[in-house]
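Q: Hi! First time doing this. I have a protein sequence and I read that you can turn it into a structure. Is that right? Here it is:
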Amino acid sequence: MGRRGYPAEFRRRVLDLLHAGGSVASIAHDLQISDQTIYAWRRQDRIDRGEIPGLSTAAERSDRCRCSTDGSRRRDTCEKPSR
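A: Yes, that's right. Below is the predicted 3D structure, encoded as structure tokens:
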């Protein structure tokens, strides 16, 4: 069974280390995580802050699924985001 992901607080701490001047390679080595994971988090953070174009995390979350007022998901209003 694979890993489900890292907690948001952990990702935020990694990004804080980057903002403080740490290198991706040293942070990845110290925390024993993939450097590609850190690059992806950094890229998404830049998108969320509007520094580079892309789909922000908040926009993606709101577009994932619109539910009807009774809470059931209707086929015509529930769409998966394209990747």
